[in-house]
UniProtKB/TrEMBL annotation:
Keywords: Cell membrane, Membrane, Transmembrane, Transmembrane helix, Transport. This is Arsenic resistance protein. InterPro entries: Arsenical-R_Acr3, BilAc:Na_symport/Acr3, Na+/solute_symporter_sf. It comes from the Bacteria. The chain crosses the membrane at residues 35-53, 65-89, 95-114, 126-146, 158-177, 198-216, 228-249, 261-283, 289-308. Belongs to the arsenical resistance-3 (ACR3) (TC 2.A.59) family. PANTHER family: ARSENICAL-RESISTANCE PROTEIN 3, ARSENITE EFFLUX TRANSPORTER. It comes from Nocardiopsis codii. Pfam families: SBF (PF01758). It is found in: Cell membrane. Signal peptide: none annotated. The lineage of its organism: Bacteria, Bacillati, Actinomycetota, Actinomycetes, Streptosporangiales. It is a multi-pass membrane protein. Its main location: membrane.
Length: 324
């Protein structure tokens, strides 16, 4: 795993601190506001352009894993997100929506890295990526409107437009770019000059978006610093409960070791970049929602790194299937 990915939590925190300081000391807030959403849209296009739909067929060989992961990600986790928000953030509607947006969006990128680190089945993990993306695209507005309740305070049309902008447009652009580059230049050229560079763009664009957002909302962060600490208990509950539940279900279903790793990673990792982009687009007048979402990766990435060591497949016999 490259050093820049190992230190991602640190770099996200540094970007936030630099943006916060710049926003408090310099009059750059109005300019930074116009950087956040474009940076996130380009970043998501770079993420999606790396997806290969050909992997979807591999999911057929692991029906128990696929069904369990879908139930955990799209039934259990939304219910848990609602319960944690109602129970621990009842008086903070913006933090409740931020928590909900984070927890109901399964990861579509870096969980693959941690799955590989732990010698999980990367083929099945890759196959689940487009499935998770399409389902969260369809269900996210439903979750926000039904589970967000009065805290959401956004009409269905606005939310649908935001999802269309943040997910469908980058996805369509990425698919077109993949097709055109392979059609006119060949697959090898696409891998070298499109998907490879796209992978290297994702993290710098994420850091730029975080820096710009904190510069834009520096005063909001300063005024609500204590409130943001309220997110730690519900996030801690989620990042402890989901791995334990995934490992327990893996044993109950007698999944192979590499599939157990995949289930743990795909149900624990969250899609904070997409959640952040949705928050910026759908709730532009409620910046605390977007600010709250930055807290997710600060806790999530160290948790995933620890999980990769805890659930790592240690038997050499399991390694061939881990290559997917």
């Amino acid at each position: 795993m490259p050093m820049i990915e190992r230190l991602q939590s640190l770099f996200v925190a540094l970007a936030a601190l630099i943006g916060l300081g710049a926003g408090l000391l310099l009059p750059i807030g109005p300019t930074a506001e116009h950087v956040v959403l474009p940076a996130l849209l380009v970043m998501l296009t770079a993420v999606f352009v790396q997806m290969d739909a050909a992997h979807v067929g591999e999911a057929r060989s692991a029906k128990s894993l696929v069904v369990t992961s879908l139930l955990l990600n799209f039934v259990f986790t939304p219910a848990l997100a609602w319960a944690l928000g109602a129970g621990l953030l009842g008086g903070e509607p913006d933090l409740r929506i931020g928590l909900l947006l984070l927890l109901v969006t399964p990861c579509t990128d870096w969980y693959l890295v941690f799955t590989a680190m732990a010698r999980g089945h990367t083929g099945i993990a890759a196959a689940l990526l487009p499935v998770n993306l399409v389902l969260q695209l369809a269900l996210l507005p439903v979750y926000v409107l039904l589970l967000g309740g009065r805290a959401a305070m956004v009409d269905a049309g606005t939310l649908a437009e935001s999802v269309l902008l943040v997910l469908v447009v980058p996805l369509a652009a990425a698919l077109l770019l993949r097709w055109a580059s392979a059609r006119f230049k060949g697959v090898a050229w696409r891998e070298r000059f499109v998907t490879g560079p796209a992978g290297r763009l994702v993290l710098p664009l994420l850091y730029l978006a975080v820096l710009a957002m904190f510069a834009w909302q520096a005063r909001t962060v300063l005024d609500h610093a204590a409130d943001l600490l309220a997110l730690l208990p519900p996030l801690a509950v989620f990042f402890v409960l989901l791995p334990l539940l995934s490992v327990g279900l893996s044993r109950l279903l007698r999944l192979p070791a590499d599939q157990s790793v995949t289930l743990t990673m795909v149900t624990t990792a969250r899609n904070s970049p997409i959640a952040l982009a949705i928050a910026v687009a759908a709730f532009p007048d409620r910046p605390l929602i977007a600010v709250a979402l930055v807290a997710g990766p600060l806790l999530e990435l160290p948790v995933l790194a620890l999980l990769a060591q805890w659930v790592r497949v240690r038997s050499p016999r399991a390694e061939p299937s881990a290559r997917g």
